[in-house]
Specification:
With 333 residues, the chain is mainly alpha-helical. It has 20 helices and no strands. Helix 2 packs antiparallel against helix 3, helix 4 packs parallel to helix 6 and helix 17 crosses helix 19. The longest helix is centred in the last third of the chain and has 23 residues.
Length: 333
């Protein structure tokens, strides 16, 4: 760490502290791919924690907005931001993965309705936190929990919440949650227990998945273009590789979802990774050929795709990955 930053850290004026915090926040945000265990990341977090109490609301607001999506932020710093007034705390409450489960539980047990509503919007809400939100939350909080596909909730509690919703909204959420519960259960079944077609075979391609990924990263093409091109080339195997990379889900699981006889799982991954309707339709057409289904089935799958919005899909994808990781850790223990 250079001398100028150390001088700023020792400076007593609020302006210097603000400058330090803004600079450190920018450096930490740029290290989003780093773990909190690296030495530089530890130092950045430590310096921000050290000046935190002397910062004004503007500086804290800037920190919350910039670091809410940054996994390298420490749990201590995340907890400090989450305990501020709601305008500052909201982004961290809703989005930060740095908040520990213990801190989330404490916030849910002690804070007011604005805080509970923000927690209810998180991409993943554990079963314990969901119970607290339902117990302490007002109508808006409860409805948000029920509509959040990333909230782990017992079906009796879910049905009790849905009955107070408008019928059309309740039916939509009930359908999505039921389909998603079945999907999550199927992730842990043996291959022979799931209705699915034959394995996909690697085909010759003009552009390899690695080359597509490189082009997308360089901004020379898009995931939509890559997936569409692979689909029209009858190469679902490469589509699986691309979706696996950009969803962060292991290829074997994406492959299994691609060859299933339903579309919930693959529609979720496509929505969560930002694939458009045209590209998903191209995938459906190839899936129908592979599974020997009539093309009309693809139209039904497209309806499932349209029923999901980006937020629902992202939350379900995160929930799938969380459950898979938990199962893998349990099996390794």
């Amino acid at each position: 760490m250079d001398d100028s930053l150390l001088k700023l850290a020792k400076a007593s004026s609020s302006q210097k502290k603000h400058e330090l915090a803004a600079h450190m926040t920018g450096l930490l945000a740029a290290r989003d791919d780093a773990t909190t265990s690296s030495e530089e990341t530890k130092l950045l977090n430590s310096m921000l924690e050290g000046v935190y109490t002397s910062l004004g609301d503007d500086a804290k607001q800037e920190m919350s907005d910039k670091l809410a999506d940054v996994s390298a932020m420490s749990s201590t710093l995340a907890a400090a931001l989450a305990n501020e007034e709601i305008p500052i705390a909201q982004a961290v409450l809703e989005r930060s993965t740095s908040l520990s489960e213990a801190d989330i539980v404490k916030l849910a047990q002690t804070k007011g309705q604005d805080f509970l509503l923000a927690l209810a919007k998180r991409d993943h809400v554990s079963k314990d936190v969901t119970k607290i939100l339902i117990s302490r939350g007002d109508k808006d909080v409860k409805q948000t929990v029920a509509c959040n596909l990333g909230a782990e909730i017992e079906m009796p509690e879910f049905e009790a919440l849905v009955k107070d919703m408008p019928k059309q909204m309740g039916d939509r959420i009930r359908h999505l949650r039921k389909s998603n519960e079945e999907l999550l259960e199927d992730l842990f079944k043996d291959d022979g227990e799931i209705a699915a077609g034959s394995e996909l075979q690697r085909r010759p391609s003009k552009i390899s998945p690695k080359a597509w990924v490189m082009g997308i990263k360089m901004g020379k093409t898009t995931l939509n273009k890559a997936v569409y091109q692979c689909s029209v080339e009858h190469n679902l195997f490469d589509v699986v590789a691309l979706l696996s990379f950009f969803s962060g889900m292991q290829m074997k699981y994406v492959h299994n979802l691609m060859v299933r006889f339903d579309s919930t799982g693959i529609a979720t991954i496509c929505r969560a990774t930002g694939l458009g309707a045209k590209e998903f339709q191209a995938i459906c057409k190839e899936r129908c050929k592979h599974l020997k289904f009539p093309e009309s089935t693809g139209s039904k799958w497209l309806t499932n795709y349209h029923m999901l919005d980006d937020t629902d899909a992202r939350r379900l994808l995160n929930l799938m990955k969380i459950k898979l990781k938990a199962t893998e850790r349990a099996e390794a223990a």
